[in-house]
């Protein structure tokens, strides 16, 4: 519906968790500018002020923010919300004001073409979940290690396969439990994620890393679960993909495919046994020599 020219969608509040917080459709209030388009449009201060009519809302998705209206929204209304989904606010270039949000537990930001660095998260004392998707300039994830209560990070691409990280910080002092990504991220950066002492789940596209590295993770971090931390991915239609970079997808229901599947499982299990206890530097060299 329309209210004060803005487009508003209202939904029943749900308890957001790591599986739902990055989906704007689970948010209580969705506020879009009247001129919304595929890029998000451009929301006005008058349209943002409609939030005054919903003082009890705790979860908001908002689109069409530019730098000035982003700052106005955060300063004026930011601390009302426990969860904020910034949906298509592509031209915001400075998000440092997010450091003042003491009540926010979930931040989801989809689609941006300007932001290059994270904000200081040390004051976001309740932040549990962070999702960052389709950023064309954000390469360095330094700063998330400062978030005192961060449990889950979801990053990569909802639309374009463009996200490529050049640095993920050492997470050995972090509170991270869940990490999901479908970005281009090196084994070194993956190792920095694995250092998190509380990590329970690490998921990524099955073709991101060499099979040797994935087997090494399974051998040395058996407490960590992941969709791709196994010999193959079952697509549910008879076809499977061998886990690992540049590995084949084939029909496992044929005689040949059945044998290929058995070989993949056997080879993976041998790697897990072989690589248990070796250092990251050793597996890095082994995996690189296999490419």
Instruction: Provide the CATH topology of the largest domain.
Output: Leucine-rich repeat, LRR (right-handed beta-alpha superhelix)
Number of helical segments? 6
Let me know the number of strands: 13
Low-confidence stretches: none
Chain-averaged pLDDT: 93
Gap from first CA to last CA? 54 Å
* Share of helical residues: 10-25%
* Count of distinct structural domains: 2
- Strand proportion: 15-25%
**Text of the CATH class of the largest domain:** Alpha Beta
Q: Name the helix and strand elements from N-terminus to C-terminus, one letter apiece.
A: EEEHEHEEEEEHEHEEEHH
Report on the biggest sheet.
Answer: 10 strands, mixed
| Global shape | elongated
Radius of gyration: 21 Å
CATH architecture of the largest domain: Alpha-Beta Horseshoe
- Class from secondary-structure proportions: alpha/beta
Strand order of the largest sheet: 1-2-3-4-5-6-7-8-9-10
């Amino acid at each position: 519906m329309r209210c004060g020219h803005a487009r508003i969608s209202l939904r029943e509040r749900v308890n957001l968790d790591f599986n739902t917080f990055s989906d704007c459709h689970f948010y209580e209030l969705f506020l879009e500018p009247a001129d919304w388009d595929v890029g998000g449009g451009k929301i006005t201060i008058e349209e943002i002020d409609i939030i005054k009519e919903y003082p009890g809302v705790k979860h908001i998705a908002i689109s069409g923010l530019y730098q000035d209206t982003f700052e106005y929204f955060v300063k004026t209304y930011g601390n009302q919300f426990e969860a904020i989904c910034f949906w298509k606010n592509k031209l915001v270039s400075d998000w440092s004001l997010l450091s003042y949000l003491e009540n926010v537990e979930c931040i989801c930001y989809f689609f941006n073409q300007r932001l290059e660095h994270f904000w200081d998260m040390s004051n976001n004392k309740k932040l549990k979940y962070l999702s960052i998707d389709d950023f064309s300039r954000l390469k360095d994830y330094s700063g998330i290690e400062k978030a005192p209560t961060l449990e889950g990070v979801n990053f990569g691409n909802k639309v374009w396969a463009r996200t490529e990280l050049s640095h993920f910080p050492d997470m050995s002092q972090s509170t991270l439990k869940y990490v999901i990504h479908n970005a281009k991220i090196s084994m070194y950066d993956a190792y920095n994620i694995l250092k998190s002492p509380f990590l329970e789940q690490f998921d990524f596209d099955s073709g991101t890393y060499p099979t040797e590295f994935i087997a090494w993770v399974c051998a040395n971090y058996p407490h960590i679960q992941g969709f791709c931390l196994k010999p193959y991915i079952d697509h549910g239609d008879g076809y499977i993909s061998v886990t690992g970079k540049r590995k084949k997808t084939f029909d496992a229901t044929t005689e040949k495919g059945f044998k290929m599947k058995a070989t993949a499982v056997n080879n993976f299990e041998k790697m897990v046994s072989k690589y248990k206890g070796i250092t990251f530097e050793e597996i890095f060299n082994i995996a690189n020599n296999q490419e």
